[in-house]
Amino acid sequence: MARGILSTWKGFKQTGDDTSRSRIDDLPPELFQPILESAVPKGKKTYYLHLLPKRQVSKHWLAFIDSCPSMWSYVYLGLNAQLLQMILRNSGEHLLDVDFDDEGASEGRLDVFFEHITQHRRWTSLSFKGRSSLDLSQFLTKQVPNLRKLTVDVTPMQNTYLMWPAAIAAPLLAEVKLHSCGLKWDSLRGLRRLEIYGGGPCTEDLAELLTASPAIEHLTLINNWRMNNDAPNTSQIHLSNLRTLVIKRSGTSASLLWLFRSITAPRLEDLTILPQPEGPFNSLSGFLNLFSSIGVHAGSCATKTRTSELKVRAIMTGLTLVVGRSSITATTVKKDIPSNEWVELAVAFVQSLPSEVRDQLTTLSIQALKSERGLAMITRLLHLLPWVRIVGVEYASKEEDHGSLTAVLRERFEKEDTDRRDGHVYLTGGRLTRRDRESLENLVAGLYLENVAV
Fold this sequence. Notes:
single chain; alpha/beta; 16-stranded mixed β-sheet; two-stranded parallel ribbon; 17 helices; 20% strand
């Protein structure tokens, strides 16, 4: 049936014939409405340019569209007064998505917009991009009991960081995205997503905000120069739903170490770190302290029902670590950083993993640009991961030699016959002599080669 409806709709769009339209008109409302909504790209400023012509197809379409409040729920700056009144009338009591971008807007359009929109409290989302704090006050000084998503971008104000001093009366607010703007941080509670680009809360305010939002799922801090050295004395902050944490060019050594040591995030899946250009973590010792505080957040990887993974990316070092329920992968992509730094960072991370996580890791994969890095990392990590029986090594260059790998793996797989029967080695790229290949085949139960020159 769905295929038949779709075919009819495509036929009508291509030919506009009455037969196809008649078949569509006979559809029940619960099928007709999604077909119309799929034909109009919602959330773009061309939305009503596509919707209004649909009203002219027939009296039936006109009546149907005008009686669907959800099709009139998008409001943006630039609409003329007549269309704006129609939208507010046809949307009924439906919640509104409000988009304010004053680029190129005339004073007349601004007056019309504020005259109509600020009288309503049905906003469920507000996206503000403007040049005037007075315009922003038209929104943030209102009580908006239905507001769930707020985006504020004041970058057009040119080198201005705007700190909004008053509390926002939005009890349902769950998602906040800010560009060069700060809010009264202690008024934000129960957030699910927080993204800050430029400025942001100081360390103490961040602690209060996270404590008041224990169900937060995504946290992004980019260019937050207000995270100072004063790490607050707070109790452990349990963030049971935090899955994504992005920190770029934000914080000092004290504030970042405080953050990773103060939060508990058992479901964390993606952690990205990019330090300040001249910050404390551009040295090996700085990153070692940080990596020694990260692995603890992989705790829930130990549960047997866990299918996701924790990915840690340190952009300045070119090191990515991924730990799942039974596997760990280390990838190095930068050539200009000494091999020992990658190895020490990986070791610090693995050492910080809870013991129940390390004991379930049976697969170790290394993707390296140089064999010396891969071999050194395997040597160190195998000592920390006693149950690893599957080893994968991938080199980017075909000139790399796997010959020394036999000596590295011999200590693990020659201990007992059971270890040898369980051992499997996967090699990708590089070179391998026939003698080394035979040695590896005698050492483990399975040897698998891909793009390896022998």
